[in-house]
């Protein structure tokens, strides 16, 4: 979840202002936090490399969660004028389906999200837009990203 949150905050910063270099990041976060983030990123990279090796040697496709696919969608579609709104939608959907495997997402897994948003008084149009964004990510994952390393 940390990587997803970092991606969301980076997207907001990119839209808001100039880019930040690593020295500025160290001065803001502190050297210890940057080192912790580096270790976490290194762990994620090792895991991804292991998945790639398994896929190449054994033909095993790694199982992906919605959070990873949403992050890939955000990175690949930075050019969209609505990317900020899409990022906010994914951030709001994360507690509901962020941890769910892509192959396990269906109407039933989205039902708690829909019920909560209806209870909050949001319009059907708003809910349908969010569902359409989920559908777009799932379709891309199934059709285009299937054999790629996300």
Core attributes:
150 residues; 7 helices; single chain; mainly alpha
Plain-language structure description:
This protein has 150 residues and is mainly alpha-helical. It has one domain (2-143). Helices cover 73% and strands 0% of the residues. The protein is built from seven helices and no strands. α1 packs antiparallel against α5. It is globular, with a radius of gyration of 17 Å. The two termini are 16 Å apart. The model has no long low-confidence stretch (mean pLDDT 80).
Any idea how many domains? 1
> H/E order of the elements?
HHHHHHH
End-to-end gap: 16 Å
The major beta sheet can be summarized as: none
Number of helices: 7
Average pLDDT, all residues: 80
Low-confidence stretches: none
What general outline do the C-alpha atoms trace? globular
Helix residue percentage: over 70%
- Give the percentage of residues in beta strands: under 5%
Structural class: mainly alpha
């Amino acid at each position: 979840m940390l990587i997803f949150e970092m991606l969301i905050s980076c997207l907001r910063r990119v839209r808001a202002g100039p880019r930040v270099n690593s020295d500025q990041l160290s001065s803001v976060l502190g050297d210890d936090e940057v080192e912790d983030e580096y270790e976490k990123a290194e762990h994620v990279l090792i895991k991804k490399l292991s998945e790639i090796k398994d896929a190449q040697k054994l033909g095993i496709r790694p199982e992906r969660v919605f959070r990873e696919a949403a992050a890939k969608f955000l990175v690949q579609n930075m050019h969209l004028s609505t990317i900020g709104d899409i990022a906010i939608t994914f951030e709001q959907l994360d507690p509901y389906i962020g941890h769910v495997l892509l192959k396990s997402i269906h109407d039933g897994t989205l039902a708690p999200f829909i019920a909560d948003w209806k209870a909050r008084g949001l319009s059907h149009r708003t809910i349908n837009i969010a569902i359409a964004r989920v559908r777009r990510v799932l379709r891309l994952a199934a059709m285009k990203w299937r054999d790629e390393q996300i």
